[in-house]
């Protein structure tokens, strides 16, 4: 993926720190056997003319505010930060924006990294940063718990995949 830039009011490009939005969606299969169920896009993609506005711009502002360069921010993290989602109506239609982003990806109209995350990894990035995912093992009749540390590991691995792309 290209380094993210933003066009200011004066028309010059300014680096925005390479922050990325990670969001899960219904799986699609670009080639037989290749499942894509999660996508990663640069924050600047939210400014694309085919993304509903001003919602995309507002979501980008929430996404990039106070972030480190190269940071991957799951949509669930934004939901957590927006008072567990109660503030989404003041920011924008995240469902419509992610649908627009997915259409851009399908049309090859933006840079994106498509991922086929396994179920637990996908559940972790779809949960808030302090949430736990409990998986029942019927053979032991016990639960295995995955939490913030495992979520960070998933995001680090996605960062490695992004670096290779």
Largest sheet: 4 strands, mixed
Residue-averaged pLDDT, rounded?
Answer: 90
For the secondary structure, the number of strands is 8
Q: Low-confidence spans: pLDDT under 50, at least 5 residues? A: 2-17
Shape: globular
What report would you give on this structure?
It is built from six helices and eight strands. With 165 residues, the chain is of the alpha+beta class. It has a domain at 5-117. Strands 5-3-4-6 form a four-stranded mixed sheet. A two-stranded antiparallel ribbon has the order 1-2. The longest helix has 17 residues, at 148-164.
List keywords for this structure.
6 helices; alpha+beta; globular; two-stranded antiparallel sheet; disordered N terminus; four-stranded mixed beta sheet; 165 residues; 35% helix
Question: What's the SSE blueprint?
Answer:
Layout: E1 5-7, E2 13-15, E3 20-31, E4 34-42, H1 55-64, E5 72-74, H2 75-81, H3 88-91, H4 94-106, E6 113-115, H5 119-125, E7 133-137, E8 142-146, H6 148-164
Parallel strand pairs: 3-5
Antiparallel strand pairs: 1-2, 3-4, 4-6, 7-8
Question: Quick recap of the structure?
Answer:
This protein is of the alpha+beta class. The protein has helices at residues 55-64, 75-81, 88-91, 94-106, 119-125, 148-164, and strands spanning 5-7, 13-15, 20-31, 34-42, 72-74, 113-115, 133-137, 142-146. The protein starts with a strand and ends with a helix.
């Amino acid at each position: 993926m290209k380094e993210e830039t933003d066009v200011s009011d004066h028309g010059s490009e300014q680096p925005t720190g390479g922050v990325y939005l990670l969001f899960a969606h219904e799986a699609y299969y670009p080639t037989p056997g290749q499942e894509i169920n999660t996508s990663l896009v640069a924050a600047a993609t939210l400014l694309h003319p085919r993304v509903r506005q001003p919602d995309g711009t507002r979501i980008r502002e929430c996404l990039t505010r106070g972030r480190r360069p190269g940071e991957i921010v799951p949509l669930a993290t934004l939901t957590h930060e927006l008072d567990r989602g109660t503030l989404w109506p003041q920011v924008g239609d995240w469902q419509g924006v992610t649908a627009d982003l997915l259409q851009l990806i399908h049309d090859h109209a933006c840079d994106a990294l498509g991922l086929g995350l396994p179920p637990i990894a996908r559940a972790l990035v779809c949960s808030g940063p302090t949430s736990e995912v409990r998986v029942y093992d019927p053979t032991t009749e016990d639960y295995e718990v995955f939490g913030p540390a495992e979520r960070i590991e998933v995001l680090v691995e996605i960062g490695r995949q992004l670096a290779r792309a």
